[in-house]
């Protein structure tokens, strides 16, 4: 879930981690039959609203403690048996679903996703994290079937070349919204540095960056008037890595762009990237053991312009 919220540089994951953990632990799990928090502690989590009514319960007496402990012990045992039974039902359901799986058969010209593990570069400035990167790329197009477990696919970057790919690394492409999650790892491909026996037997191909689709990479476009644009990137700014203030000049930030290059940019030209500036300033204050600045909602409301009604 983190990769849905972190920025392109993967530097703000710790901001979202507590909230996502809370959402995960309090969400109902179909296999468990309840929330992970309930299965762990035998009770629902205490939320801030519950603290407002904490003094509404009657006071306990000292002779009630043994009875309460016996009641809690029985409740935990009942919860454990309930979860174990639910897990067994989930395992049986998964086994039945696997038994009912049918053989995948792709036709020529079908569009597919291809699994390729994300390899991080050795560049120390590359802050990307493997677990936040996509491992399914595409769409690729089927050229022909080669054996029972291998298909040959076209390469968008090399139209005159086709490569063999094991069927376990393929999923049908129905649109960009159908990109599989990273935890859907084909069997035998957990460790990309050591090809499995299936890969060696079918002469499977490990795709490098040169063989990935163009929409999996970021391309820098230079115009004749000196302007620069980036393709396949949600924002041209990747991160802000430094700051300098030399009066009477304007405050400047060292901005790292999507292509990896960095330029000193005045603050006035970063109006559309205020979130990057705020993130850098907060990170800088934390390194100096200073509290992060937070704007009061009342002060923010004063910034909005008053609506003038004309009659």
Automatic annotation (TrEMBL):
Segments forming domain Integrase p58-like C-terminal: 138-171
GO terms of molecular function: nucleic acid binding
InterPro entries, sorted: Integrase_p58-like_C (IPR054465), Retrovirus_Pol_polyprotein (IPR050951), RNaseH_sf (IPR036397)
Coiled-coil region(s): none
PANTHER family according to UniProt: PROTEIN CBG26694, PROTEIN NYNRIN-LIKE
Protein name (Swiss-Prot/TrEMBL): Integrase p58-like C-terminal domain-containing protein
Organism: Aphanomyces astaci
